[in-house]
């Protein structure tokens, strides 16, 4: 499973629309998606999934250049929601020459939300993917629940995950940890699985996705939320060749609450790596935002930092990384 910072062919966005839970703030979240689309298409192609693409095209055309619009592929498909990270394909490559698209079961984070339409996107999408002449292999793994936000790959055979998520009810029970680990190794062709004892963030619907808590970066670097217990566990970890990881502690945003007083899962760990840039979630907290951007910049010194105000996204309990899914670039592309 490639690391996210390896060369990308394109990014997928499953776009908000009036038939989703985004309806009460549809204008606000659409503006955020337009900002993401702008940042992405300046750097690489973009795939947009929407039941009615004709509703999206005029908004994009008014915002983006003609060249950016040429980088967008639209796919008309019914959807329940917008979390491409969790219903999208998980990609594997063989020597960067062959692409394997793994279609796992998405069941609404343990049957919490309706997900039948989202779980069917990949099978419909496969035949039209913009793979630039390379025909990927489609692998049906719908017998196993796995969300892209629940795993992190270092591109060297290590997959990071959290016990609180993968062992949560209504995912792959009655499988136990050792059985789930064996399945992850087999299906993702991983050498090892690192289980972290994290706690879900307040307001998190995912039972503790790794991409809200700990992220991988080049040179055996791990970025993680401020958490003393997590810090101690990460300090004990070693790479496959026995070396300690470089640890970078991210600040936590000051708590943000919805109108009902529920804390929302604001996190800086939910950034998206692009070709040449990183989209960093910000929350109109100048000191915290600047500190987080500086730390993430130190992990990706050769990439531009692009701040995206993510206060709209967290209203539905996600952030930038949750909204997106990257597809790896093969050598001959």
Give your account of this protein's structure.
The model has no long low-confidence stretch (mean pLDDT 96). By secondary structure, this protein is α/β, with parallel strands linked by helices. The protein contains twelve helices and 16 strands.
Q: What is the topology?
A:
Blueprint: E1 8-14, H1 26-41, E2 46-50, H2 57-63, H3 66-70, E3 72-76, H4 84-87, E4 90-94, E5 98-105, H5 108-111, H6 116-119, H7 121-125, E6 137-145, E7 152-153, E8 158-162, H8 163-166, H9 177-188, E9 192-196, E10 214-217, E11 221-225, H10 228-236, E12 246-250, E13 272-274, E14 277-282, H11 286-299, E15 304-309, H12 320-323, E16 324-328
Per DSSP, the total helix count is 12
Query: Biggest sheet: strands, sense, closure?
Result: 4 strands, mixed
Rg calculated over all Cα atoms: 19 Å
Distance between the termini: 18 Å
Structural class based on helices, strands and sheet pairing: alpha/beta
Shape: globular
Uncertain runs are none
Percentage of β-strand residues: 25-35%
Order of helix and strand elements from N to C terminus: EHEHHEHEEHHHEEEHHEEEHEEEHEHE
Fraction of residues in H or I helices: 25-40%
């Amino acid at each position: 499973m490639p690391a996210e910072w390896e060369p990308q062919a394109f990014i997928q966005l499953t776009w908000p629309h009036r038939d989703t839970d985004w309806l009460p703030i549809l204008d606000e979240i659409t503006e955020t998606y337009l900002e993401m689309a702008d940042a992405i298409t300046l750097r690489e192609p973009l795939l947009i999934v929407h039941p009615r693409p004709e509703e999206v095209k005029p908004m994009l055309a008014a915002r983006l250049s003609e060249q950016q619009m040429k980088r967008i592929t639209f796919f008309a498909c019914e959807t329940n929601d917008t979390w491409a990270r969790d219903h999208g394909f998980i990609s594997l490559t063989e020597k960067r020459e062959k692409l394997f698209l793994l279609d796992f079961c998405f069941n609404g984070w343990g049957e919490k939300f309706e997900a039948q339409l989202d779980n069917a996107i990949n099978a419909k999408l496969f035949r039209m993917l913009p793979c630039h002449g390379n025909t990927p292999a489609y692998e049906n793994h719908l017998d196993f629940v796995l969300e892209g936000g629940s795993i992190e790959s270092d591109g060297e055979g290590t997959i990071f995950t959290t016990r609180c998520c993968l062992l949560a009810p209504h995912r792959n029970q009655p499988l136990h940890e050792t059985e789930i680990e064996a399945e992850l190794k087999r299906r993702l062709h991983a050498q090892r699985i690192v289980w972290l004892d994290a706690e879900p963030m307040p307001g998190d619907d995912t039972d503790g996705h790794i991409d809200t808590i700990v992220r991988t970066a080049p040179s055996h670097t791990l970025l993680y939320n401020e958490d003393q217990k997590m810090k101690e566990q990460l300090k004990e970890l070693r790479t496959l060749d026995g070396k300690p990881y470089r640890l970078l502690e991210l600040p936590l945003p000051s708590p943000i609450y919805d109108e009902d007083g529920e804390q929302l899962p604001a996190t800086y760990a939910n950034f998206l790596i692009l070709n040449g840039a990183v989209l960093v979630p910000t929350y109109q907290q100048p000191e915290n935002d600047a500190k987080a951007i500086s730390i993430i910049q130190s992990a990706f010194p050769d990439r531009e930092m692009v701040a995206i105000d993510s206060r709209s996204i967290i209203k539905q309990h996600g952030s930038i990384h949750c909204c997106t899914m990257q597809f790896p670039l093969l050598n001959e592309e």
